[in-house]
Structures are given as structure tokens and as C-alpha cells.
Amino acid sequence: MTERGEIYRRLGVEPVVNANATMTVLGGSLMRPETLEDMRQASECFVDLIELETAVGARIAALTQNDACFVCGGTTAAIFLAAVACMARSVPDGVLRFAELPRLPDEVIIHRAHRIPYDRAFELARAKLIEIGMPAGTCATDLELAISERTAMIFYVTGGGGQVGPGALPLADVLRIAHDRGVPVVVDAAAQIPPVESLWSFTKAGADLVLFSGGKGLRGPASTGLILGRADLVAGCRANSAPLERLGRSMKVGKEDMIGILSAVELYLAEDHVATDRFYEEAVAFVFAWGAGRADVEVVREFPSEAGQPMARARIAFRGPLVRHRDAVAADLLGGRPRISVRPAGDDGIYVNPHTMLPGEVDVIVRRLDEILAARAAAAGSTERRAAGTGS
Questions:
Q1: pTM for the full predicted model
Q2: pLDDT at 145 over 50
Q3: What top-level class would CATH report for the domain 6-22+272-390?
């Protein structure tokens, strides 16, 4: 049997043990074997993509207790398509044409605390971002005064990750104010799976559209995203996207990926989430036990995870001389074999996140840490001895 990762090594690219997060730059997450088999079968014949997309969307909508669903090419594509659909919601065919922009609403209201790198997708739609509030706080009047006849939608980023500040209005307040003025609210919940309830809780609370990554917690193809919610707005997303020759043509999703994300959703809903949580806790406990009694590290269990997901991760804080070498330790982990990616934790530590780890990989990580910390300690001791010998 071919060694796992050999397909990459043939190209001179060494695979990574991901103890970081479901980062796109690391490939998102790992698909289940059943999903890969479903995608293989999907590759065996041709199909009408519009028919397939409609059927897949209807199935996912039913599974997730939503009115409608559109499968798009990732969450950034979802942001673009949601904006286009909201801007063109008064157009009879729902299609955004830039020549018609002067008569259409083209403003998107966003909290300053919710600015994220991916909101540049609004620029592709030629939408104008209207910022409200300050990172430290926002009041209801800020939102009420920002809404006008030019307002196409309100963009709300949910989650507890570092990209989202604490200064936003509660979603319930945003929904009330927006809907009183007839303005749609679009929720970016790209990484908010788990919990599984996120697939329906935001729309049941009143969000008009909610956006998810297909390649993060759902473990579907990394090139997919889900737009869930109001049927008319989902239809607007569809009208502006591939395979039609519209503004979203470049954000196409292939037949294999459509089947792949449907398979991923079905499997995720059927998953034993209690057992999955147990795996995460056991991995964190393993790291905690490894760090117990050591003078060079302190390990604590942190909850929730990096984007506010309800799962634990281990924070390893370095002590003594190692405090100055946190970045070097992370570089050693990534530069060795196996390559291990971790996330910085403050100025003095790293996170080990079990969300993207396979069984047995936590053992590999602590063994590599043992090697690296021992080497770093030996090098530091040698430097101190040389300094003492020279009188420095």
C-alpha cells in the first residue's frame, strides 16, 4: 500500500500534521473515505450541472431545516454571491449588471469589529462597505442611522475567533432593526461547525442567509461553500453564478464537488458527535499529561477553540529560557519531519488543536516537542557555559 502522503512527496512537497486549525492554506480538513468514494462515482459520467445543483441544494436544504441552499465555490464566493443577490433583489431576473448599479442598493453595512480579510469580496461586486461602531462597542443608533435606501444588506460575522472583535451588537438586535427596515441580514458562519445546530440555528433566529465553508468542520471539498436561507435570495445567488455566464462564473463548482459536499453534510449529520468530542478531550488530556511536572512548559486546556467552536485545545506556554524561542520552536516543528503546523498562543506559547488531527498524531507531536525542547535546552546550556568561560 502506498504510504499516506506519497502523492505529494513525488512532487517534493512534504505533507503536514495539522495541529493548527481548518486553515485553507493547509487544505481545510480531511474528507472521509465515504465522501471520496461518492466523488469518484460522480466522476464516472456526465450530468446537467443545473439539474444537479438544484437537486443537491434541495437535498441539503431539507437536511439542514432550511428553505433553500446553494453550493458555491467557498465562503468568499458565498460573500460575493450573497452581496450580488441582495443588491439585485428588486431586479426581475435577479441578475446584477454593473450598468444598472446607479439605481440599485449597493451599500453593505458592517461592524468595524467584524472587518475580516475576506470582506474584500464585496469589492468584486462593486459594493460599498459602510462601517458602524468601534471595535470596543457599537450602539443600536449607529446601525439605525446607517440604514438608507442604498442599503443592500447587513453583513454579520459570528464566532469567537481572533478575527472578530467584541464590539458588535447582538445578532438579535441587528435582525430586529434590519427587518423593521426591510433589509436582509447575511451571517458569515464559515467556521462555526461544530456545533451541528449552526446549520439551522442562525436562519431559525431570523438571518436571511447564512454562509458556511464546505471544507472546514463539515469535512467536504475545500473548494465548496454553502449558502442557506431565504429561497428568493438563494435563487438570486444561483442566477448570478456558474454554470451560467454571469458575474460568478469563475466561482464554479464541479459535479464531483457537489456530490462531495452533499455526502459530507449527510455524514456529518449522522456522526457520533459525543464520540468526536471525546477524541478531542483525550488528545488535550494527553498533552496536559505530557506537560505535567515539567519546568520548561505549562499546559492548560482552553475552551472554546480558535473560531469559537465548542471544542477544547491545549495551550502550551513555554517557561524559562524557552520563552524567547517560541517562534523558533514552531519553526522547528514545521521544518522537521513530520512537518507539524501549530498556531501561536500569545507571546510565549503554541496551541495544539485536535480538530484537524488524526488518531496517533498527538503522540507524534509530543515526541517531536521532546526532541526540540531537549535540543533547545542543550544549546542554551552550551551558550551559557561559553559565556561563563569568556567572562561575558
A1: 0.92
A2: yes
A3: alpha beta
